[in-house]
Amino acid sequence: MKNTTLPALRVSDGFRHQVEQALGEGETLSAFIEDAVRHEIDRRQARPEFLARGLESARSARETDEYYSVQSVLDDLDRLLSKQ
């Protein structure tokens, strides 16, 4: 497979300095940018499914009149996170 490049990105000196300060040990600027682009692609691809699940949940709640309080949801999330 042939490799290619992404377009050059012009940024201010200050922003480039911020990015360089955020690099991990041994991490290159190119690797950082590629990782950021990959994460954004993943996020954008997941967004439509996320929205569809939210809309389906809202539809279901309206049909069943079954709603959950914010605190109840946060408590459930805390329990899930504490198990990890």
Could you please describe the fold and organization of this structure?
The chain is built from 3 helices and no strands. With 84 residues, the chain is mostly helical. It has a domain at 29-82. The chain starts with 12 loop residues before the first helix and ends with a helix.
Largest sheet: none
N-to-C CA distance: 39 Å
What is the number of E strands?
0
Structural class: mainly alpha
Overall pLDDT score: 95
* Number of helical regions: 3
Query: What is the N-to-C succession of helices and strands?
Result: HHH
Percentage of residues assigned to helices: over 70%
Task: Work out the strand percent.
Answer: under 5%
The shape is elongated
Uncertain runs are: none
Cα gyration radius (Å): 21 Å
Question: Quick gist of this model?
Answer:
By secondary structure, this protein is mostly helical. It has helices spanning 13-22, 29-64, 70-82.
What are the SSEs and their pairings?
Elements: H1 13-22, H2 29-64, H3 70-82
Protein name: Prevent-host-death protein
List descriptors:
about 80 residues; 3 helices; about 70% helix; elongated; Prevent-host-death protein
